[in-house]
Amino acid sequence: MKTLKITTDNKISIIDLDFDHKSLREEVGGYVELVRTQKLLDYFKTKVVMIVDEEGLVKNLPVNPMGCYFYDTNKHGNPIVGDVILGLLVGFDMDVIGLGDRDAEQWMEKMLKDFPVLQKENIVNE
Length: 126
Prior knowledge:
- By secondary structure, the chain is α+β, with helices and mostly antiparallel strands.
- It has one domain.
- 32% of the residues lie in helices and 26% in strands.
- β1 and β2 form a beta hairpin.
């Protein structure tokens, strides 16, 4: 299912990803952690989460500026590092799916308008 990926160098792209544990680990480069914040909920108006590498700090991955923005790093000092995948939280078991074909495109366009620092990258993983 299609969703958005935001890299540490502020590139945003639509990726097509199976939302199973193995695919998510391959995409973020390690063990998966789901990050939920009020800022994500306020922006997307639905239960969007960031999917990050749980061991990113230990691996000394670069800071992800957009991830830090949505995590409110400026308030508490803890950064989001490495590339970020956005997913939609569904059900009661913390299941995550993609944003969907049409929604991923619409959200990417909105984010490009709202955050001029982001640059559109070609679609990958089709």
